[in-house]
Prior knowledge:
CATH architecture: 4-Layer Sandwich
Largest sheet: 8 strands, mixed
Radius of gyration: 18 Å
CATH class: Alpha Beta
Strand content: 25-35%
Number of helices: 7
Order of helices and strands: EEHEHEEEEHHEHHEEEEHEEEE
Shape: globular
Number of strands: 16
Mean pLDDT: 94
Amino acid sequence: MSTLLSVQPLNPAIGAVVRGVSLAQPLGDATIAAINRALLQHHVLFFEGQELNPAAQRDFAARFGALHVHPVYPHVKEVPEIIILDTHPDNQPDNDNWHTDVTFIETPPLGAMLAAKELPPSGGDTSWSSSTAAFEALSAPWQAFLTGLTALHDFAKSFPPERFSAPEDRERWQIARDKNPPVIHPVVRTHPVTGRKGLFVNEGFTTRILGFSAKESDTVLRFLFDHVAKPEFTVRWRWKAGDVAFWDNRCTQHYALADYLPNRRVMHRATILGDRPV
């Protein structure tokens, strides 16, 4: 590690706080490599006290790969790579589940970076779970049973058409739907860098396990969705002004708690494209 960085683990399974770096400043290759090593080890990193505008957030995220432009979420006008997650009584979330971002594409994100912009007086925490720790905690027969299975991931599960009632929103949804047909991913994914195996099904986008009857698939998926949410595999972050979270989307799921309404919560997210899961 760079001598300027300190990495404080939050628990054995997932999460660490990184100090000694300003993400708004251009960072050298050695610092980026150190952050990447910490990300691979801890799955989600938290940076406190950051002053990160959308362009700086985009530039930092782009040091780790090409960025995704979301097909339906609103984005910062001048920086389309930064999506705006603005939750309030007239725009309530319906993704109140454990999910992995954008698994409805062939090459789901490597990672994502979330910056707090407007926070409620209380509530609004986000939890992350290590799908690697969840897989490794399964018995050997369960691991063998799941390895080699594939599952369908569908954009429309988290973005159903009824969410988009205005004509211009429905048109945008239809374009996104046409560009993003259901895709197939392995149920157990091997991390392309660490080689560790992890569960790669999530309640946000996974609709069924292929080759199973609907009842069989629902039974296995419900067990896995419940299993990954066990507290032993998770970390919960209480947001403060200036906080930034950076997570490895290849081996985590997350859950944004919507316990703050009617107050407002605004977050900016940059999403880094990854590779095809194997």
